[in-house]
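**Sequence with structure:**
===
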Amino acid sequence: MSTPASEAVSPATGPWAWFERALGVLMAIPVALIVVLTFVDVFGRYVFSARADDDARKPVAYLAFNDQLAAGPQEIKLTVFGKLLRDQRPPLPLRLRDVEGFLLYEDRDPDREQVAPRYGYLYTTKSYPESAFSTAEWQSEERDRHLKEFEKDVAEAKDQLDHLGKK
């Protein structure tokens, strides 16, 4: 049975509603997705983190959100990738806990305004068979960018080693 929770927060005000939006494939990315609904008063870049534990209450995943949100009703998508669940094989359901966040200001000090945290278990997903999750690796523009940067760093390090070896 799924367990919703609600409470007001600031600067994101209004009820927090926890629920599963989808399980399986969302925008061709195989995921288990937990969506947090909230109302945001202030436009800006929000950073949220949460944790997902398995049915035995052992940690499974760290979930993060870092994106701009417009004022008004918003969805904060916290994603657990299917391959992680297939590889770890945690006993389901998953339990969402300890959601923290802040509004990031890029041009002032202090540079952030905390959103009231929610601690403890806040939501329990349904149980799903392992076959519901994809075996595909996580793909994103950010991952590709980091991999290209790492490859560049490795090539530069090899060039430096080669140069040192020739002296």
Observations:
- The radius of gyration is 19 Å.
